Amino acid sequence: MICNKMDAPIGGGIEPKKNKSTRAIRSWIRIEEDALIHCLLDIVSDGWKADNGFKAGFQREMEKGMRKLLPGTDIVVTPHINSKIHVWKKDYGVLSDLL
User: Fold this and answer.
1) Residues sharing a CB contact under 8 Å with residue 10, sequence separation 6 or more, in sequence order
2) Is 42 exposed, middle or buried (0-12, 13-18, 19+ CB in 10 A)?
3) In 1-99, where do the E strands start and end?
4) d(CA 39, CA 80)
5) Contact residues for 22 (Cβ-Cβ < 8 A; gap 6+)
């Protein structure tokens, strides 16, 4: 459960990307991924899910939830949360039913 790990260090860190781009890649740690999943489930149970996706503003609500679960985190909607959801959708087809 996430609540037991709240005093763990936060932030997976940013590692330089090894290609043409100068952007950095953020590495997520397990507690951050757990918190994001928890926020997704809360968003769905709170009625933010519509027939064809989520209602406008759900990402900001997820960011607020992440800040409550992990105070001091540097995770923001763009690019962190959007990117992580995109990767999960690509890697795990199960999320398609949820999202």
Assistant:
1) 29, 31, 32, 70, 71, 72, 73
2) middle
3) 14-16, 24-26, 49-50, 53-54
4) 14
5) none
Q: 71: cis peptide before it, omega within 30°? A: no
Q: What is the pLDDT of residues 22-77, one digit of tens each?
A: 767 888 899 999 999 999 899 888 888 877 788 888 888 889 999 999 998 888 88
Q: What is the pTM of this model?
A: 0.66
Which one-letter amino acid corresponds to residue 21?
S
Give 23 or 4, the one with higher predicted confidence: 23
Q: Who's near 48: CB < 8 A, 6+ residues apart?
A: 54, 55, 58, 61
Mean pLDDT in residue range 78-89: 85
